[in-house]
């Protein structure tokens, strides 16, 4: 999906968060490519990310919506 399609898909889910057990995961548009997502993931731990942040880390205009959680060290993610 391109960025706008991914953003529209996220809006269609009609949630900002998904709860898995005791973990509240935030829905964000992220790069789909594994290498791009890895770079994104490393910086995500520091916080302050929003959907537009994915653009900076995406090399091929291919995005996906993921649920993400971090404690500042570890990151859990799930494709939505």
Can you offer a commentary on this structure?
The protein has helices at residues 3-13, 34-44, 53-57; strands at 17-20, 23-31, 63-70, 75-79. The protein is an alpha+beta fold and 80 residues long. The longest helix has 11 residues, at 3-13. The protein is globular.
Structure keywords:
80 residues, alpha+beta, 4-stranded antiparallel β-sheet
What is the compact description of this entry?
The chain has 80 residues and is α+β, with helices and mostly antiparallel strands. It has helices at 3-13, 34-44, 53-57; strands at residues 17-20, 23-31, 63-70, 75-79.
Q: Order of SSEs, N→C?
A: HEEHHEE
* Strand order, largest beta sheet: 1-2-3-4
Shape: globular
Q: State the separation between the terminal residues, measured CA to CA.
A: 13 Å
- Could you list the spans in which at least 5 consecutive residues all have pLDDT below 50? none
Q: Beta-strand percentage?
A: 25-35%
Structural class: alpha+beta
- Total domain count: 1
Average residue pLDDT: 94
The residue fraction in helices comes out at 25-40%
How many β-strand runs? 4
Instruction: Give the biggest beta sheet.
Output: 4 strands, antiparallel
Radius of gyration: 12 Å
Q: Helical stretch count?
A: 3
């Amino acid at each position: 999906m391109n960025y706008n399609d991914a953003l529209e898909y996220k809006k269609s889910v009609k949630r900002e968060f998904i709860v898995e057990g005791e973990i509240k995961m935030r829905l964000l548009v992220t790069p789909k490519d594994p290498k791009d997502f890895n770079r994104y993931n490393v910086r995500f731990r520091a916080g302050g990310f929003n959907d537009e942040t994915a653009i900076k880390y995406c090399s091929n205009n291919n995005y996906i919506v993921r649920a993400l959680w971090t404690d500042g060290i570890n990151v859990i993610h799930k494709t939505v």
